[in-house]
Design goal:
This protein has 469 residues and is α/β, with parallel strands linked by helices. It is built from 15 helices and 7 strands. The termini are far apart.
Length: 469
């Protein structure tokens, strides 16, 4: 080796040094990445919940304040007066009407300012039923009087209950806003003076959520609706039932949310919600549950955000030409995202969208053609994403613009449950899991359909119908 080096020219030796330096730099980058991954995995194994910080902070912090292009920003508008509101019309007189500077008579116009509030001590509605009870003098049988608003079993130890409105407010605080039941009952007591207990709320929720209960039947109806939806986005997150690991799955459309808690997350649990005859399009991440043979004929849109993240992770470890494959693939996927966003914003017509989409699909097909790459990581990306592209699951949104290219809808739908998981300790048993999936599905659907959660839930508890999508 020494003799061979002596025969090389100065330029050749410089090339060897540069090549070895690049190789050492790439190896150092790979070692840094692997050390970080080891530390992350050790941290996850050491604690039961994921850390609040999931990686390095952003290199460039965003400036505080409102950002351009983030939606309209307006002042608070005057409240819409409802028929049930108590309105006080007050006047703020100008006084003499003369200019304090020169004494001239001023032109007067009227501006409107409002303050919306609630009474410091809300008036409680106490409904007192005088129930007639007849007793037979011969057999001793008893018959109770009836009233449309009085449940038949409201007697004895349960003769005095809280109404549907205040119970719905507590349920909204817990299942929608993420407060614990104990805190929700305390908040109700502070605001209304009505005392409630955590156990009483739990029992009420159990009765409503059982299969034959009022909300249990509505939940079953929502599960039926999801089977006929044209596009459904789904995702899952970790949960615990009785202290044991389980999964909280969510299935979402623009006007519908269905949650399901199961001990496992396989394709069987997915089909349990959408059905084996699901004819719509399923938006998913790269989870193995969606690659089962039972779902092979089902149209799917893989989340481009997940694909781009996987590609960026590989690209960070590459130098020179080794990073060209991932860079070009990311460019193609981002072009598709930009095309879809332009179409949804009305900047691109349907004909142009279809034509440019077909051309972009051709570019992606060529880039993901079957071939052997020298880099193992690039080969893994080619094989994995190439299979999905062969199944039409990468740029399906270019053919069906109603499909979102990312799975962000499902991730947003699961986020409130993830936050609640940190304070609720999930579900104590299977019954609690059943209650949560029922209540969470109904409250989330009410929000998606533009309804007030508390009043909408109270209406459903009284036997009302779920508002149409």
């Amino acid at each position: 080796m020494k003799l061979a080096l002596k025969k090389l020219t100065k330029a050749q030796l410089i090339d060897i040094v540069i090549e070895q330096g690049e190789r050492l730099e790439q190896q150092a980058k790979e070692i840094e990445y692997l050390v970080g991954r080891i530390e992350e995995l050790e941290r996850k194994m050491a604690c039961s919940a994921s850390p609040f910080s999931k990686g390095k902070g952003k290199g460039r912090k965003k400036k505080p304040g409102r950002k351009a292009g983030k939606g309209p920003f307006t002042n608070r508008q005057p409240p819409e007066v409802k028929s049930s509101d108590v309105v006080e019309n007050l006047k703020a007189p100008l006084g003499s009407g003369e200019c304090p500077g020169c004494g001239a008579t001023m032109d007067v116009e009227v501006e409107v300012a409002t303050t919306i509030d609630v009474p410091e001590e809300p008036q409680r509605l106490v409904r007192r039923f005088e129930v007639e009870v007849g007793t037979c003098p011969i057999c001793g049988g008893k018959v109770r009087g009836t009233h449309p608003d009085l449940p038949h079993d409201q007697c004895g130890a349960t003769a005095h209950r809280v109404g549907d409105t205040v119970a719905a407010q507590a349920f909204a605080m817990h299942y929608h806003s993420g407060m614990t039941l104990r805190k929700a009952s305390e908040a109700i007591g502070v605001m209304t003076g009505i005392t409630m207990t955590q156990g009483g709320l739990t029992l009420r929720a159990k009765q409503l959520s059982k299969s034959g209960g009022v909300l249990g039947r509505i939940y079953a109806g929502l599960r039926g609706e999801i089977k006929g939806s044209p596009v459904v986005n789904t995702d899952d997150t970790g949960w615990r039932t009785g202290g044991k690991p389980s999964y909280l799955m969510g299935f979402f459309t623009p006007t519908l949310a269905v949650y399901q808690i199961r001990d496992r997350h396989r394709h069987e649990e997915v089909l349990e919600v959408i059905g084996a005859l699901f004819a719509g399009i399923l938006g998913t991440d790269r989870g193995t549950s969606y690659e089962a043979k039972a779902l092979v004929e089902m149209r799917q849109q893989k989340c481009l955000s997940h694909l781009l993240k996987n590609l960026s992770t590989v690209e960070e470890m590459k130098r020179g030409r080794a990073g060209e494959f991932t860079r070009e693939l990311k460019r193609i996927l981002r072009s598709g995202l930009k095309l879809w966003q332009g179409y949804r914003a009305g900047k691109i017509g349907q004909a142009a969208y279809k034509k440019r989409g077909e051309k972009l699909q051709e570019v992606l097909d060529y880039h993901l053609r079957d071939r052997v790459l020298s880099d193992a990581d690039n080969q893994r990306m080619l094989d994995g994403i190439g299979i999905q592209n062969d199944k039409g699951r990468v740029l399906l949104f270019l053919e069906h613009p109603e499909v979102e290219p990312t799975n962000n809808r499902a991730e947003r739908g699961l986020r409130p449950a993830v936050i609640a998981r940190k304070v609720s300790q999930c579900s104590k048993n299977a019954t609690g899991a059943k209650i949560y999936e029922t209540m969470k599905s109904i409250t989330a659907t009410l929000v998606l359909r533009g309804q007030n959660v508390a009043s909408g839930l109270a209406n459903l508890m009284r036997g009302g119908a779920m508002p149409a999508a």
